[in-house]
Amino acid sequence: MRVIGKRVRRIDAIEKAFGKAKFTNDLSFPRMLHAAVVYPGVAHGVLRSLDVSEALKAPGVVAIATYKNVPNNEMGIVTKDMHVLVPVGGKIRFEADPIAIIAAETREAAEEATSLVNFDVEELQPVLTIDEALRDDPIVNGERNVAFQRKIRRGDIEKGFQESDLILEMDFETGYQEHAYLEPQSIIALWDGDNLTIYGSMQCPFYVHNDVAEVLKLPLNRVTVIQMETGGGFGGKEDVPSYIAVKAALLSYLTKRPVKLVYNRDMDFRETSKRHPSKSHYKVGFTKDGKIKAVKAAVYLDMGAYSTLTPIVMYRSLTHAASAYDVENIFVDVYGVYTNKVPTGAFRGFGSPQVLFAMERVMDEAAKRLGMDPWEIRYKNALEIGKATATGHVLEESVGAKETLEIVREISDYERLKEEVRKFNEGNKYKKRGLGWAHTIYGVSLGAAGQPLDASSGEVHVKMDGTVLVMIGGTEMGQGAKTVMALIVSEILGVDVDNVRVMQPNTSIVQDSGPTVASRTTVFSGNAIRIAAERIRDNIIEYLKSKGVEDIKIENGYWIADGKEIPFSEIAREANAANVKLAEMGWFSTPKLNFDFETGTGEAYVSYTFSTQLSLVEVDLLTGKVELKEAWVSHDIGKVLNPVGAEGQVEGGVVQGMGYAISEEIKHDENGRMLTTNFNNYIVPTIRDIPRVHVKFAESPFSKGPFGAKGLGEPSLMSSPPSIANAVTDALGILINRLPITPEEVLLKL
Ligand code: MTE
Ligand code: MOS
């Protein structure tokens, strides 16, 4: 292949590095207003009165919307359990549950007026932890605090334990994680009396499209959503931009003026989603030679005040609860629990990092008790073709699980490394090193729980001068989707990568392609684009044949017609003049998955990515600080389309997973108000903390992926937290069953 699998520069690198790329806040329109949001600052209560008259008189204020102005005030992506704006008489369920929105001539005027909105709240006891919520007194939302349950019942769990020589029971806890995208939530809405246009930072323009139309009761063909350059999403811009967009759209609708709503970091921390904190109990049975016989798990996810995406997140916790192993007897329950805190939702890994951490810790404990090497026990239980996943999905192809284990063992020179660590620990009293493994699985795309959304569109237009315009429904948010699309088109059409432009998604141009989540873009948008490009290629070939050309090849950016090299620009001009169709649409969906939701068994996903990570940590016994020094990683992602981009995803994923594992922590006060609302006390890794990351891919091709590719965006993070926790346990010889492993936590444990 010419460009696929080769080391290329990402197509949006220069415009981003030079600050030319346009983000939402770079846009401005004549007569544009600026919006601010009014929050109650109380975690649980009933809104008794609301008076905006004083705020309306403030200088620069143009309009204030309350629940009375919302055409359809009920919202929620899976269940309608939230309001756009809390009505008087209605419940406030977390401190940043919006009660009013203000539009003013300047951002300062809008923000200042928020303190002039008068309201009374009858306070209720806030429910702040999973344990408190389980008492169902008081109820946070709906009829019960445990609002959702999903389960797997496979094999015979009791028989599995009877056949086990070692049964481990362990409890785990994980904390929040904030996405910490550099660009906060940002939307501009323009209502002109007939049509509404939304520009914004988002992963899922089609979600925003549907939600805004529903809230304003507008037909979908009068609403256009355009994704602007997006400065990171990580799941935090999956459903959340809908909640921001409806606010800006409502104010634009009321004032008939453009409205910009750009969150500051404090608002973004308090109001928008995070990774679910979790509590889980695992009971796992092993034979004495390390074979897993039974996995029983109960997992509780803290979904905060509103369910948002939790029921879908839970599906992933469920299907990933036994990690990447071949186990016949499985009994898993996952519960979604309401509390009076910020709603939690999508975050890279989507409910799997919590359970992978737990199961991978169990694997290490079992290895220790059975006197096995932690690599060995994983290898022994790893999946292969013909074996079944936790849900009983028998794998028929593309299973490079064992290969990733072999690769990491080799590139890390594991035996020598163990020796080095042993020597280091002998020679150091206050610093201890440790090694930790993780071996994980990731179901690519939405899977059985999201099948109605699992299809994507892509259009390719070849222009007369031989340049190409590509339109997809998937979004670029930093992960490199645009470059992958350009590579696919370039490979198929023989056009130079630099002559391919990938447009920002626009809901009025591209068919609803589902959300840009679940690491599905390469497979879904990539296939759609592949199909469109192949059609154009075939149209051109047909035309050349009709002219009598017999032998046609595409090589090194040139078309070779009967031995004569023709640049793509010339082909395009000629084909265009001959009325050849040079614009095509591709549509990709996968066959229906067979899954039984009652037992949680069957084909959960179209394909799976397999990952292995070995982490080397150093712990300072005097300060409790954990440092990830080096990581060796291998992922089987099928064919690697863009090696530089893929390595970048792995490096970023390892580091974001490291932040989750050792430093990032959201804290609340006893009244449910968030204390960590900026990067001074919510500690994300910086350039100083970056470890050395060694990456080598296993490429076990997936027959339905474009050129054999699967997905990597999320698995790149998922192997990191458990391998770090296992390494810290190895270094200190004390059980680490709670994330994050902050210095305080380490010192307490010591
Ligand atoms: N990488 C960057 N740089 N920025 C992001 O926002 N999001 C992650 C991952 N990698 C993200 C990222 C998440 S949560 C997902 S689902 C995937 O990218 C989505 O992109 P993909 O489908 O192209 O893998
Ligand atoms: Mo990613 S959490 O699926 O946006």
| Unique ligands | ligand MTE, dioxothiomolybdenum(VI) ion
Q: Radius of gyration, Cα only, in angstroms?
A: 27 Å
CATH topology of the domain at 278-448 and 596-749: Aldehyde Oxidoreductase, domain 4
Percent of sequence in beta strands: 15-25%
CA(first)-CA(last) distance: 55 Å
Compute the average pLDDT: 97
> Runs with pLDDT <50, length 5+?
none
What characteristic shape results from the CA principal axes? globular
What is the CATH domain class of the domain at 278-448 and 596-749? Alpha Beta
The proportion of residues forming helix, as a percent range, comes to: 25-40%
Biggest sheet architecture: 7 strands, mixed
Could you give the count of β-strands?
A: 30
**Largest sheet, order of strands side by side?**
3-7-1-14-11-12-13
Please name the CATH architecture of the domain at 278-448 and 596-749: 2-Layer Sandwich
CATH homology superfamily name of the domain at 278-448 and 596-749: Aldehyde oxidase/xanthine dehydrogenase, molybdopterin binding domain
Task: Decide which structural class fits the backbone.
Answer: alpha+beta
Number of helical stretches of at least 4 residues: 20
